[in-house]
Amino acid sequence: MFLKTQLSWNVLVPAENLDAEGLMLQRAILTRLLDDFATKKAVKDIGYFIAVTTLDRVGKGLISQQSGALLFPVDFSCITFKILPGETLEGVVHKVLKHGIFLRCGPAEKVYISHHKMAGYEYVPGENPCFVNDKGLKIENGSLVRVTVIAERYDEAEKDFRALVSLEGDFLGPV
Amino acid sequence: MSAEEEENAAELKIPDEFLKAKCLMNCEVSLILEHKYEQLQQMADDPMNQMSQVFEKSLQYVKRFSRYKNPDAVRQVREILSRYQLAEFELCVLGNLCPETVEEAIAMVPSIKVHSLSRLQLFMFLRGKGNEPPDFITRGRAHDDEAIEKMLNDLSLIKKFE
């Protein structure tokens, strides 16, 4: 699920950018914020950081005695993405293995359907491995699938989320 | 709590951090990200450099999974669904998946069938007394099949004129 949320971050503007005033300073602050935003990628409680939508408020800068840089408290609105347990969503298959399938949902690539959660589907090995059920429905690389989220977990090392999903249930499965 | 209410607890277990969050449909996000992508293309020589992987993958995803492309249609979807007093989360799942039947709608968003009073009691129980439930949970109320059918019909009309 994509969410719109308001956050408050401290943005550090290095001394070299501080000759600028007014609009130029605002731009320097915005540029630093966008850089920090893109670098941060994802955190456990909020999800993935997708895009900044508006700069809502810039507070007074605090000088760092040592570096001469200014620290600005910034309120901004942004789009984030989080996989919520119990949610039903759609994704694209990007890896088919004997024991299950990996989907891509939004920026998350490690959305996993275990073959235990694919009742009726059998693995078919080969150059383009896939899962097929008795009704002839095929799930392969590139297939669109609708699933429901069982659990999700944040991976601190990768700054990434993993999720366990299922396609067992009414109106779930290949789209 | 009845067994049914307990089962529905899973659908309503929304963590603290979403108290201040508003949900967006894929088609809404698509319009925003496409606009940003255009801005990047105008500003930088090499827009691909400026885009994070997260942005790029999200843009690809929402373009693929948007049922409505026209900005007017997107606005209409939100407007129509807003009339049915759905919780934000429910509204967006419906707008994303566009169920065609009442059965499908309830399968996708089981919480639309939960009675509004028990929903509130459920939330209070989960979160402890004295906590205000977030707007986007309590605004939803129970819908009978007829109301859901009407809502789906209104939605399908937008698709016809897109």
Please name the defining characteristics of this protein.
heterodimer, A: 175 residues, mainly beta, 5-stranded mixed β-barrel, 1 helix, elongated, B: 162 residues, mainly alpha, 65% helix, disordered N terminus, nucleotide binding (chain B)
Tell me the span between the first and last alpha carbons of chain A. Answer: 18 Å
Q: Give the averaged pLDDT of chain A, no decimals.
A: 93
Helix and strand sequence of chain B: HEHHHHHHHHH
Number of alpha- plus pi-helical segments of chain B: 10
Beta strand count of chain A? 14
Low-confidence region ranges of chain A: none
The radius of gyration computed from the alpha-carbon positions of chain B, rounded to a whole number of angstroms, is 18 Å
Low-confidence stretches of chain B are: 1-20, 127-131
Head-to-tail CA distance between termini of chain B: 44 Å
Strand content of chain A: over 45%
Largest interface, C-beta closer than 8 angstroms, per-chain residues: A-B, 38 and 41 residues
Q: Based on helices, strands and strand pairing, what is the structural class of chain A? A: mainly beta
Q: What kind of sheet is the major sheet of chain B?
A: none
Number of strands of chain B: 1
Q: What is the helix content of chain B?
A: 55-70%
Radius of gyration of chain A: 22 Å
